[in-house]
Amino acid sequence: MTVNHAESVLRMPWAGPLISAAFLALAALPAGAQLQVGLKLESADFIQYEAVNAFVTLVNDTDDLVILGSEKGFTYDTLDFAVKYGKSGEMLTRTGTNAVLGKTRLMPDDKRELLIDISRLYDLSKMGNYIVSVMVDINGKRIESKRVAFDVVSGIELASVRRGLAEEPDTVRKYALRYWSRQRQEYLFLVVEDPETKQSFGVFNLGPFTKVTKPTIEADRTGKVTVVHQLDRGLFVKSVFKATRERVTFVDSSQQNDDGDALTGTRPPEVKLGPGK
User: Fold this and answer.
1) Helices vs. strands in the chain: H and E counts, helices first
2) Rounded to 5, what percent of the chain is helix, strand, coil?
3) Averaged pLDDT, groups of 10, the chain, 277 residues long
4) CB–CB of 74/107 below 8 Å?
5) β-strand 90-91 against 78-85: which pairing, if any?
6) Is the CB of residue 26 less than 8 Å from the CB of residue 55?
7) How far is it, in rounded angstroms, from Cα 45 to Cα 229?
């Protein structure tokens, strides 16, 4: 199954509680080791093809400068992940040769938190259970964080639409709205794929929603995709995306009332767009 690197990482103001409530695992340090390695995930479960964001915490309790990563072909001490899949504990191999991170310097007493999308490094497209840990090889010794489990799920589909693109008559996309519960709150996702090849063109977390009013999705031949979902009583969110042959990108988000009138005094969401699936 192929994966397209579309722009599909969406950040909203409500994402903070997810991160703060994420799962934290701090390495049990071997005797004499003074570099602490911690790992937390944004969630305990992820929609298929969603970015699997890991927050890696490094604390340098040594008296020396620690340099990790690589620069201009030279590799310093390394940081990597160990990922196992399913009941068999199959150890996954890297899908590419790129370094996990560039040159990273930690002075004595420095604390650094790194955001790394594990799905960029390993094929996490299979649904099921995974176990991950982060490893640092430094001065000939390996320090490994505690293991953290997570699941990849399909989500529950509420609505979908298929549309071709005017400039690409043979290009058809399926736009599906799926939801999943995280920490007692239901979240809505826009999932975009080629209906024939199942190639993913992005998974967008649209935020919390209530099922009192069924969310709607519209797509036209110009590639404009519009989603409206209910956030709270009398409060709706309208999200707009743009689809091309190569990718799907976020355009705009606004809040509106029952009549579809835009509400004043609202702020646009905090959006982080980057290469996706």
Assistant:
1) 1, 22
2) 5, 55, 45
3) 44 43 43 78 95 95 86 76 94 84 89 94 96 91 94 96 87 95 92 93 93 93 93 90 92 84 57 40
4) no
5) antiparallel
6) no
7) 22
| Residues 66 and 138 sit within 8 Å (Cβ to Cβ) | yes
In whole angstroms, give the CA distance from residue 34 to residue 60.
7
Q: What is the DSSP letter of 93?
A: P
Q: Which domains does the chain have, with CATH numbers?
A: 15-152 (2.60.40.10), 155-256 (no CATH)
Look up residue 200 and give its two tokens. 């993913």
- Number of Cβ within a 10 Å radius of residue 137: 14
Is 170 in contact with 188 (CB distance < 8 Å)? no
Q: Under DSSP, is residue 18 helix (H, G, I), strand (E, B) or coil?
A: helix
Residue type, 96: G
The label of the residue with tokens 């705009």 reads 252
Q: Are 31 and 4 in contact (CB under 8 A)?
A: no
**Separation CA 240–CA 169 (nearest Å):** 22
Cβ neighbours for 256, distance < 8 A, ≥ 6 positions apart: 228, 236, 237, 238, 262, 263
Q: What tokens appear for 138 in the block?
A: 């430094």
Q: For residue 126, what pLDDT is reported?
A: 95
Using alpha carbons, select from 208, 196, 146 the residue that is nearest to residue 172.
196
Helix (H, G, I), strand (E, B) or coil at 90: strand
C-alpha–C-alpha distance, residues 82 and 145, integer Å: 10
Quote the tokens at residue 9.
Answer: 């990482």
Q: Evaluate if pTM is beyond 0.90.
A: no
